[in-house]
Amino acid sequence: MNDKIASLKSQFEEQLANVLETAQLEEIRVAYLGKKGSITDLLKGMKDLSNEEKKTFGQHVNMFKAEATEKIGAKMKELKELQIKKEIESMPVFDVSMPADTARGSYHPITLVQRECERIFKSMGFHVEDYSEIVTDYECFESLNIPKHHPARDMQDTYYLDNGQLLKTQTSAAQNAIYKKYKDDLINKNIPIKAVFPGRCFRNEATDACHENTFFQMEGVMVGKDINISNLIFFMKTMLSEVFQRDIKVRLRPGFFPFVEPGFELDINCLICGGEGCSSCKHSGWLELCPCGMIHPEVLKAGGIDPEEYTGFAFGLGLTRLAMMKYGIKDLRDLNSGNLKAMDQFTDDM
Ligand code: DAH
C-alpha cells in the first residue's frame, strides 16, 4: 500500500512541475483531491486493511493530502503572480507627453436648460438658490401643508435614510427655508421675495419613457404685497417665450397641490403642431408643463410670513420635461444614460 502512495506522490510532483496555467492546476487539484480524486480513493481503499495497517496508512495518506493541498495552493499563487506580471508587461506604455484626445465633453441638456432658465429669471430680478438633496420630512412635506398620512404623500414615495431624513421628492422642499431666509427683507424693507431653486429630485417609481426615479425641477416663488395670478402668468409666459424663442400661449387649468390655493396646471400651446393637435399633445393642442398656484396661507405661516398681509405664487417647472421638449428627446431615460454620443449633440462648447 505504501508503494501506492509513493508512486502517486512522484506522479503528482511531476505533473505539478509541468503545470503552466491555473486551469490546468485546477484539473490536477480535482484529479487528486476532488471527491473522486486519487487521494480520496486511497482513503476509501483502506476498509480492507487491518486496524494497525489502517492507522499508519491513514497517517501517510493524510500527510500526502496535506502536502498536496499546500503545494497546489503555493503553485496557484505563483501562477497568478506570473499571470499579473505578464499582463503588466504586455500593457502599452503610457506616454505622458502624448497630445490629448481632441474630443471634449459637453454640457448635459438639462444643465443647458437649467442655466437658460436661471439666466432668464435672474434678468427678472430673481435670486437663484442652491438647496440640499437630503432634506427632512418637515421641509419636504409638513411645512408644505402635507401632514403625516395625507394622501398626497402616496404620489411621492421616496428613499429614506436611517436618520429619518429623505431624498427630496420635489424642489418645493426648499420653500420653507427660502421664506425664512428672505422674510426679514420682505417685512422690514418691503422687498418682495423672488427666488428660483433648481434641483435634483427623487421618487421611488418604476421607470418608463416618461418616468424616472431621478429628475430635475426648478421651483420658483414670488411673495409680496398684492401678488396675484396675473403676475404668475406674466412671469411664466415671459420665461417660456425666452426659452423657446417664440411667443408662447399658455392656459391654466385647476390642479390640486396641498401647498397652493388655488392650484393650477399650466399648459403651453403644443410646439410641435402649433395647437392643431398631434400625437405629442394627445391631439389636444396643449402640453402640460408647469404646475403652479397661489401659495397656501399655511405654507406662508410656516415660513414666518403673515398671509393676511402678503400673498405669493409658486411654480414647479419640470426641467427634465422642458429639456425633452426643447431638444425633442423622446425617451426620458436617455437623459440619465450617460451616453455621451446621445448627449453631446446639443452643444459643442464647454
Ligand atoms: N412640487 C410639485 C410636484 O413635484 C409641483 C408643484 C406644484 C410645485 C404646484 C409648485 C406648485 O410650486 O405651486 O409635484
What would your notes on this structure say?
This protein has helices spanning 2-18, 22-33, 38-44, 51-90, 109-123, 137-140, 175-189, 229-244, 297-302, 319-327, 340-343; strands at 127-128, 134-135, 166-167, 193-202, 214-224, 250-254, 260-269, 286-295, 311-318. The chain starts with a helix and ends in a 7-residue tail after the last helix. The chain has a seven-stranded mixed β-sheet with strand order 1-4-5-9-8-7-6, with helices on both faces. Helix content is 41%, strand content 17%. It is an alpha+beta fold and 350 residues long. The chain folds into two domains: 2-90; 109-343, 2-Layer Sandwich (BirA Bifunctional Protein, domain 2), CATH 3.30.930.10. Helix 1 runs parallel beside helix 4 (51-90) and helix 5 (109-123) packs across helix 10 (319-327). Bound molecules: 3,4-dihydroxyphenylalanine.
Write the layout of secondary structure elements.
Blueprint: H1 2-18, H2 22-33, H3 38-44, H4 51-90, H5 109-123, E1 127-128, E2 134-135, H6 137-140, E3 166-167, H7 175-189, E4 193-202, E5 214-224, H8 229-244, E6 250-254, E7 260-269, E8 286-295, H9 297-302, E9 311-318, H10 319-327, H11 340-343
Parallel strand pairs: 1-4
Antiparallel strand pairs: 2-3, 4-5, 5-9, 6-7, 7-8, 8-9
Helix pairs in contact: 1-4, 2-4, 5-10
3,4-dihydroxyphenylalanine binds at residues 170, 172, 219, 257, 260, 263, 291-293, 314-316.
